[in-house]
Amino acid sequence: MTQPDSKLAGQEARRVARASQRLRTAAAYDGIQAGLERLRTDGWLIVQIAAAAAIAWLLAAAVLHHQQAGFAPIGAVIAVEVTRGQQVRHAIELVLGVTLGIGVAVLLGSVIDNPPLRIAVVVGVAMTLALLISGSLVLVVQASLAAIFLAATPSPTGGLAGEHLVEALIGGGLALVMTQLLFPLDPIKHVNQAAEPVFNRLADALEQAAAGLAAADCQRARQALEQARAIDPLVRSFQQALTVGYQVARLAPFRRWALDEAAGPAVEGA
Hints:
Blueprint (H helix, E strand, L loop, with lengths): L2 H62 L6 H13 L4 H21 L6 H19 L3 H15 L6 H25 L4 H28 L3 H12 L2 H20 L5 H13 L1
Helix pairs in contact: 1-2, 1-6, 2-3, 2-6, 3-4, 3-5, 3-6, 4-5, 7-8, 7-9
């Protein structure tokens, strides 16, 4: 290789290295921006969960008069996360499921010494009772998970399990108050987020149908029909969002304004 060729190759290598460095910098910047966006979106939820854990521990410690109320913050953290954005009935079922599982472990855990047998019996009884009480999958799953969590501990005693039951009720109850009454989601935003994909997909399907009819293209029209039918799951999610949004606006003192905002366009349209 001649000296000019070597010089050109070196310059090209440096250009490639600089371009690669710019790409890595841009990727790192995009990653930081995405992280900051996630923090901006969920930062308030993190604050709520942290506050719920601390308040649940304080309440349980005050009620039970000891400093080892670990189940209360655990129950609060789990319940805040899973009950946010849920219908009131589902949120209550989540808390009841946890309580039911712990209650079964209270009754049976201390009389069965073999850990695998204890877990199997406690989970089976908890799920059976949950099915008898309600056909809700949420209730059944939460009851079984709570039963496993407590039944897996070494040699649970009735007194200790009873305290865990009280702690779970405190944590779950606090979570319900926070997510359903004090700091619920924004009902208007929640409904809009569920409605957007429904109307976007529906508009696309109608455009395809119109184009198929205009061109007398039966195949394209059938595809538009299938596309419209595929929206059904999104419509069900939208209906659930409407129910949740209405319940939030009706129950939460700080979200009552959403009822007036939702009623405004309806009154104008009438």
